[in-house]
Amino acid sequence: MNKDTFLANAMIGVSADDQAVNDQLVELELYELTSGHQLIDPKSCPTGIGVSSYDEYYTQFLGLYILKMDLLNAKFLWKRIPVPVKESSANLKILWNIGKLLLRKNYSKFFETASQIIQQPNNHHPESLIYIVTQIGQRQQRHLVDLITSAYSCISVEFVASLFCIPVKDVVSLFVPQQWELTANGKYLSLTQQPSTMLETPPAILSSPLLETNRSGLNPLTIRCPACELRLATAFELRKHAIAEHLASLDVHNQMDIPCFSCDVFTCAICGVASSECSAVEHHFRANHSAFINDPIKV
């Protein structure tokens, strides 16, 4: 079995299973620890781990670290790789170049470089390298989509296309299955439902009778749109409203021409309800949470 066939089979075997990636890394790390740090011949063959050369061994080792997004260990591994191996291996240099781009969080350049490696006409790169770069690119793409979904309720299609180095039509097909939708003017992606947050209101507070005033509608807390006076329940709904009603119909060609929506939002420190009126939050706190503090609230 030649080295390209072996490495491709190894990557295929681990790409979909994080536990398998970890197991493979343990095996490679164990070999490194037991083989010593003597200067090695880059053409020699490590025995006992199923690879045909040190070039192949370190290519697999570095590729798996980057695939796992363990970039710190990838950096330390690169420093440990013997100079003769690094100097003689084009595959290692390519992998480390894309690893450095991820370390620097230069995602646009990373996707551009990965695309060039994968789609190069008359591709002279080995299949094993193309495969692992493809797997790394797909995992980074999924990772960034998750980050964007957790941080944004609206984002420019043009910005995302530039970030991922893909056509606009591919941006839509990538985000729509993740609960995003294209706005009427086709320039923005809007999240169709509010993402779950890492910090949630404790169940004991949610079930507390102290919140019944707001639930019954006797003392509703709302956020006012600064453009049309519409009142909404959450900041997320305000952003969706602003995008759909005030931004989607605009035909702007310069980022500086987009109007700025400024709205002060005050939140309750106990249960997290919000309002654009400070006095409403103060009243809510005194009425519902007096047991938590004796001093008057200062928002």
Your description of this structure?
- Residues 223-246, 266-289 form the C2H2-type domain.
- Pfam families: CSN8_PSD8_EIF3K.
- It comes from Echinostoma caproni.
- By secondary structure, the protein is mainly α.
- It has three domains: 3-120, no CATH class; 152-191, no CATH class; 203-250 and 260-288, no CATH class.
- Helix content is 54%, strand content 6%.
- The chain has 14 helices and seven strands.
- It has helices spanning 3-14, 18-35, 54-67, 71-80, 83-88, 90-103, 107-119, 127-151, 157-164, 168-175, 203-206, 212-215, 235-247, 278-288; strands spanning 154-156, 180-182, 188-191, 223-224, 231-232, 266-267, 274-275.
- A three-stranded antiparallel β-sheet has the order 1-3-2. Strands 4-5 form a two-stranded antiparallel ribbon. A two-stranded antiparallel ribbon has the order 6-7.
- A hairpin with a 6-residue loop joins strand 4 and strand 5 (231-232).
- The radius of gyration is 27 Å and the shape is elongated.
- Mean pLDDT is 75; it is low at 1-16 and 196-219.
Question: Quick recap of the structure?
Answer:
With 299 residues, the chain is mainly alpha-helical. It contains 14 helices and seven strands.
Topology readout:
Layout: H1 3-14, H2 18-35, H3 54-67, H4 71-80, H5 83-88, H6 90-103, H7 107-119, H8 127-151, E1 154-156, H9 157-164, H10 168-175, E2 180-182, E3 188-191, H11 203-206, H12 212-215, E4 223-224, E5 231-232, H13 235-247, E6 266-267, E7 274-275, H14 278-288
Antiparallel strand pairs: 1-3, 2-3, 4-5, 6-7
